From TrEMBL:
InterPro entries (UniProt xref): RutC-like_sf, YjgF/YER057c/UK114
Protein name: Enamine deaminase RidA (YjgF/YER057c/UK114 family)
Upper taxonomic lineage: Bacteria, Bacillati, Actinomycetota, Actinomycetes, Propionibacteriales
Family classification: Belongs to the RutC family.
Pfam families on file: Ribonuc_L-PSP (PF01042)
PANTHER family reported in the protein's UniProt record: 2-IMINOBUTANOATE/2-IMINOPROPANOATE DEAMINASE RIDA (PTHR11803), PROTEIN HMF1-RELATED (PTHR11803:SF58)
Amino acid sequence: MTIERSNPPALHATPGYHHVTKIRADELIMFAGQCPLQPSGELAKGGLSGQTEQVIQNILLALEAAGARPEDVVRTVIYVASPDRAQLSAVWTQLNESPLAPAFTSASTLLGVAQLGFPGQLVEIDVTAAL
């Protein structure tokens, strides 16, 4: 499997992700959007930061279950239930300071949305990996 990440010179600089992620792989793994739910099914406490930490842990567990690592992630979509750019930026920073950080060097999208599926849910991340 090979993953090539690049930023065409005619496009703007990015804060860590790459505009283009090209993959040659035997397997493509699509994960359900990971929510900030604990194994008990309860929403993680600690506001946006606590929920983001739970999502990080859930993604790491899902990757491991599929035999993948953060370095194998080829696409992420990050949803934050907030119109506040500072909150979106805080989530991006937390993700890039976590053990999941290599996942966000591939093609990534960060969106502020009106609401997510569970009452009180503030963040969800959609991940695709390749092996």
